Amino acid sequence: MLAQILSTMLPVFLIAGCGALYGRYRTPDIKGLNTLNMELFVPMLVFAVLADQQAPLQDYTSLALAATVVVLGSGIVLYPLARILNLNLKTFLPPMMFNNSGNMGIPVLVFAFGEAALPAAVVLFVVEMLLHFTVGIYMLDPHTSIIRRLRIPVIAASIAGLTVNFGGVPMPQWLLETLNMLGGVCIPLMLFTLGVRMLDVDFSDWKLGVLGAISAPASGLILAWPMIAILDLPGLQIAALWVFAAMPSAVLNYMLAEQYQQEPHKVASLVLMSNLGSLVVMPIVLGLVFTAGYV
């Protein structure tokens, strides 16, 4: 089991570590890299996986439902805590709800469970992204245009991929292979840029950050348990849901907080401390998943 955990987490830590090491001595254009990734490579991977009819998406509807409950339910579960501690809801709740299913989720699931886990990883990522760019942005600014949200490349690629899959539109294998190869760039690039971002950890709000590092995975795992008990999920999807539920906050939370001027320094602390906390949380969750024998 230890060998399985190490073989999963070491590539993640090493690639992120390379980003941190490079960022320590250079000043890479992280904004540019993230823009390239989110506007080109990630949409290509999302479309290729969703459009590939060899992975029937109807088999993942229950997983998508469970992921929706985990994301939205986390906000409901932690709402009383935020009220009791007198925290700004727009600052605290989005990072607790919208997790790092892209930068960390896809690589961890693929490294842990192999290429067979890629469709589940992408479905979880798409659910989180769709909710983030609809519910999440509405939480920050209720007046944001729906048309503007639909123009986001990942959302457009998701809609196009789902349309192709459910519509039975034939896709040339050479095209899917090309999109998969280009989209494959996004996985190591996500981890590399995450490593560079980790250098920006601000410890001035460390208490709030520690609270978030505990609350985000705890609320997700609490909500995943009844979903697994209620829904008839295959073993691989159960394993993917446990890992998804324990993911730290998405870096995108910080980017949106900066864009909407929603206490970005506090959101940065929540996000980065949560990702640091995942160094402890992820090996524990993976250990439990491997022990349970879901895959």
Automatic annotation (TrEMBL):
The record, for PANTHER family, names: AUXIN EFFLUX CARRIER FAMILY PROTEIN, SLR1864 PROTEIN
Q: Looking at the Swiss-Prot or TrEMBL record, what is one Pfam family this protein matches? A: Mem_trans
- Listed GO biological process terms: transmembrane transport
What name does UniProt use for this protein?
Transporter
Keyword terms: Cell membrane, Membrane, Transmembrane, Transmembrane helix, Transport
Q: Which organism is it from?
A: Marinobacter salarius
Q: What InterPro entries does its record include?
A: Mem_transp_PIN-like
Q: Where are the transmembrane segments?
A: 6-23, 63-85, 152-172, 178-196, 208-230, 236-256, 268-294
Q: Where in the cell is it found?
A: Membrane
Q: Which GO terms describe its cellular component?
A: membrane
Q: How does it sit in the membrane?
A: Multi-pass membrane protein
